[in-house]
Amino acid sequence: MHETTYQITTLTPQQPTANPGLLPTEIPPGVQMVTLPGGMRTLAYTPQQAPPALPVPVAQPIPTWAKTTALLTPTIGGGIAAAGIGLSYAAPGLIAMTDALWAAVALIAAAAIGVPMLLRIGRTTTGKASTHITQNITASGMFGKANGTINHR
To answer: What is residue 92's three-state secondary structure?
Structure first.
């Protein structure tokens, strides 16, 4: 195989002072010569002033609709609870009333079917002819005496 040998060299760190090619008048605003924690001096951007503080949030007033809703919520909830309690107390009475109404409906239905059937049965069971009565009434004038005859057949 082919092996290549490389020579490793190291550089010694040098302390740069000021950049000799840059005059102090050529340094842009906001750039200054600073010393880093390792002791090295270099040019860096520095803030001119402290950053502006974040704006403090101002308390906003609560909207009227939110106040109204918040005040009505317990009222509506209390009304629903009262209705539920009232229905629980009224349930036995309501059940009894519905039973009575169903009984009334059954009675009406039975009467609508039963009464005509009883009338038919009553007419067909009698074997003799019924008696017919006829009346003839006559009167003369507006205030005249009425006369009449009754005929039995």
So the answer is: helix
